[in-house]
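Continuing the series of single-chain predictions for the mutant panel. This is the parent chain; the variants come on the following pages.
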Amino acid sequence: MGTLKSSWARAVALGASLSLLALGAVAGGGSVAGGAVHAHQAGSLSALIYGPSVIGANGSGTSGSLEQTILQSEGYSVTIATAAQWDAMTSAQFASYQLLVIGDPHCGSAGLAAAFNESTWMPAVNGNVIVIGTDPAYHYAFGSNNAGAYATAQAALRYAGSDATATNLYLDLSCAYDNALPTTAPILSGIESGFVVTAAYLNSDTETADVTAAGASALGLTALDLSGWQSAVHEDFTAWPADFTPLAVVGGAPTPELAPRAHAVTSHTSVGSGLPFCSPGVTSVTGVVGCPYILARGGVAVTGRVGDLALSRTVTTLTATWQAGGSSAPFVCTLLYGYHDPSTFTVRTTGTQCSFYDLSPGISYGVAVAGDAGAGPSSSAFAGPVRSTITCRLGTHVRHITAVNPHCPARWHLVG
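Parent structure:
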C-alpha cells in the first residue's frame, strides 16, 4: 500500500480518536472507570482494547472492530478504553484483564500513543507477548486475501491470550513504521530492549511471507494465509531480544518498484547474511529466508484445532464441513455475517457438519466452528455472495440473467 492509503488511514484513525475523546465512553463489555479491581482470575476471558488503536465496523468508531469481533467469538468479555481512560488506569486495573490489545487502526499509527503510560501497563503483563508488523484489520476490510487477514489476527489474538493464568499482550504495529529506517521504537523499548524495526519493503518483497516451524505450531497458519494481501507486511524486525521467537518471516528481493531506493539506502549497511538489515536471517517452513515480522515471547501451544474447515453455499444455504481434532465433540457452529460480527445463530452437533438456511444471497457469510461444546479453539471460513440465474420473457424473446440478485428488465416477465 502506498502513500495515499497511509494518509487516508491516518486521517480515519485521527477522526476515530477525536470521536472517542468526545464521547468519553467505554464500549464493548465493561467499564474501566472507578471501583476496586483485583488480579486477573483464570477462566474469566476478559480483554481490554486501547480504543484509538482500532476501527469499528463499517470504518467508523471503535465498536465492532475486527479485534473485538474475534475476541467475542472466542468467548471474551471485551472492554474498549478511550485514550484518557487507558492513561488513567493503574497497574492493578490492567492486571485484572487476561489480554491487553493494541490493534490495527486501518494502517495507521494511533496505537503507538498507548506508550504514554507503558510504564504502568507493561508491568502488569506477566504472560505471553506477541508483536506483529502488519495491518490485518485493513486487509480484512479492503484486501485481496481477507480470509488470510482474518485468520492471522485470529491466530495471533488466540496465541496471545492463551495463558489463562496471566495478563497477556497483543501489540500490532500496523503501519506505524512502514517508511522507517532501522529504529528502536519507544513502544517496543517499553517491552524489552533489543528490538530494531524497519520498513519491510527495504528488505524484501512484502508479499513473500511464511511461518517458521514455531509459527506453524503455535499459530496454525500457512504461507497462503500470510501472502497475497497486496502489500502484506509493513514492518519487520532486524534485531530482537533473545527471549522472543520469530513466528513469521518476510523475505525475497525488495519490492521491484522500490528496489533502487532500497539499494541506495542499504548499500553501506548490508550485513553478512545477505539481507539488507536482518542478521541472522530466519528460515520459514518452505525455505523462505527473511526477517521476522511476527515475534512472540512465552506462549501455550494451541491444540485440538478444527481441521480442514470448508464451506459450500447455495443461494440461501451455507454448509460447513471439517475434520475433528482429538476428543473435541460436541462442536458448536456460529454463523458470522455482515462485518462478520458473531450472530446468535448457532448449531451444536456431535458430527462434523452444520448448515444454516434462509440466507441473503447478496451478503458474505462465515462460519466459526469450535470443539468441546465451544470451549476449544475455533476455526473460521467465509463464503461470498452467490450468483443465480433467472429466465425473463418479452413476447417471443427469452433472456437468461445471472447476478447476485437478478431482476427482469422493465416490461420483461419472469418465467417459472
